[in-house]
Amino acid sequence: MSTPSQEQDRVLIFDTTLRDGEQSPGATMTHAEKMEIAQLLDEMGVDIIEAGFPIASEGDFEAVREIARLARRASICGLARAHFADIDRCWEAIREAKRPRIHTFIGTSPLHRDITKLDQDGMVQRIHDTVTHARNLCEDVQWSPMDATRTERDYLCRVVETAIKAGATTINIPDTVGYTYPRESAEIIAMLRERVPGADGVIFATHCHNDLGMATANALAAVEAGARQIECTVNGLGERAGNTALEEVVMALKVRNDILPYATSIDTRKIMNISRLVSAVSGFPVQFNKAVVGKNAFAHESGIHQDGMLKNAETFEIMRPEDIGLSATNLVMGKHSGRAALRAKLSQLGYELADNQLKDVFVRFKALADRKKEIYDEDLIALIQDSAASG
Ligand code: KIV
Ligand code: ZN
Q1: Under a CB-based contact definition with an 8 Å cutoff, are residues 236 and 42 in contact?
Q2: Is the CB of residue 146 below 6 angstroms from any atom belonging to ligand 1?
Q3: How many CA atoms lie within 13 A of 47 on its CB side?
Q4: Atom in ligand 1 nearest the alpha carbon of residue 23
Q5: Which end of the chain has the least Cβ crowding within 10 Å, N or C?
Q6: What's the rounded mean pLDDT across residues 72-100?
Q7: CB atoms < 10 A from the CB of 255, how many?
Q8: Is the CB of 60 under 6 A from ligand 1?
Q9: Interhelix angle 355-371/339-348, nearest 10 degrees
């Protein structure tokens, strides 16, 4: 497999909904559900699917193995700790994939070195041995220093150099606890690319968590500094406050291509489908005002906004609903709606009212909207009938 260079104008999308996303408390998915998600991720153009953690359970192993057999286009990746047994089990699960990838990791920050009881040299040796072992099995090896953003910078350079020398082809920089900040996220990638020998022969990836609500910003800042793989999950599903959301980074790269001139291979028109599927199987509802996929992301209630939308959709929308697989903008009828929006809504429902009748229905509509949060199509039809009956 050729190693794409850092200079490429493409960002790879690595989806870890089935691994990091599923680690979210309460988000466990059945085997069949995982197959359905993997199939859609593959169809929509995700470059790498992290299908699970094969040594974690028999169920994870079987799911990763079946996804590896089924995927047509995506690389299939399994997670493994820095142990030979983990790596062997991972390889067993992914080996039948068209494009298998082993992802092995170890916590490199002082807190994690305390837990593994390895000193700096001991950890370097472990990284060398395990990455070498993985590379002897598989051509495509990703290595991650867990808690990279809280790892001493000189030591981070040293461990990344070790992994590259041992054969890693992708170096992923996890912000495991969502601690970093966009400028810092960029600085870390820039520093590694500048200081680590061999850095220009690997892909740098960014893997952010959302504890401070900065996962998307941190991932995009890393891309600006040269990362060419974003790790993310659908709807931002993931432990604690979740991970970078796939739909956010993909649409940010599309909408702001002027300042982030990198393409992805995602068919964005499948975004709503995958969002709904992941929400249904994980049991995690998508918040109404969630960027890109929330119920209100393309909904407008205020009169000024609705009027602007009716004249030119770009007035209040930076993306087209069709681009993410929605059929149309939703003009929500409520107390803030104006007469132009009411006329447009009634026309959609098949009612073209004369000006004086529209005036009457509008008065009735405003009175109702003061009592009721949202006005449904049936309410509007009833108002027209009442108006006709009294006129
Ligand atoms: O957040 C993290 O550090 C991870 C690693 C296993 C890559 O998910
Ligand atoms: Zn993670």
Answers
A1: no
A2: yes
A3: 17
A4: 8
A5: C
A6: 98
A7: 14
A8: no
A9: 100
